[in-house]
Design brief:
Elements: E1 8-12, H1 19-33, E2 36-43, H2 56-81, E3 88-94, H3 97-107, E4 112-116, H4 122-128, H5 131-138, E5 143-146
Parallel strand pairs: 1-2, 1-4, 2-3, 4-5
Helix pairs in contact: 3-5
């Protein structure tokens, strides 16, 4: 049986406190496989607001500000959580998280996804769904899901 090679790992983060826990797992895998890590944050799309009493240019400016802020946060997050010479790429995407994660994996030949579950229950889960669940169900590559420690 052929061995599977892991050359690239996608670590999906939302910059919440437990994102550092996800990175710890991704870094352990990076050391084991000597691979590259792509840290990805997906900013929500605001296209659903087009048609409301908000001009499209205002929405576009707001999305631009979110992305700029997220890119700065990503830069700091990588500096704080990875050694200086790590093979790590930070990327901020916009859209629906599960779809963007899967598309990014295909475009960048990712071999493994590491992501957290928020552990939503009841009505929250019905209303918001689970990005992790959507990724697991539609991914063509393995997904390691990590439930954050609730403090």
């Amino acid at each position: 049986m052929e061995k599977k090679q892991i050359k690239k790992i996608l670590c999906a983060v939302d910059f919440a406190e437990y994102s550092k826990e996800l990175v710890a797992y991704a870094r352990t895998l990076q050391e084991a496989f000597n691979c590259e890590i792509h840290v990805v944050y997906v900013a929500p799309t605001l296209s659903q607001y087009v048609g409301f009493q908000i001009s499209p240019s205002s929405i576009e400016n707001f999305v631009g500000e979110i992305i700029t802020g997220a890119e700065e946060t990503m830069e700091n997050f990588i500096k704080e959580n990875f050694p200086e010479n790590s093979k790590v790429i930070g990327k901020v995407l916009t859209g629906y998280a599960a779809e963007e994660i899967i598309a990014y994996c295909k475009e960048n030949n990712i071999d493994l996804i590491v992501m957290g579950t928020h552990g939503r229950k009841g009505i929250d889960r019905i209303l918001f769904g689970s990005v992790a669940e959507k990724v697991v169900k539609s991914s063509y590559i393995p997904v390691l899901t990590i439930r954050p420690k609730i403090k």
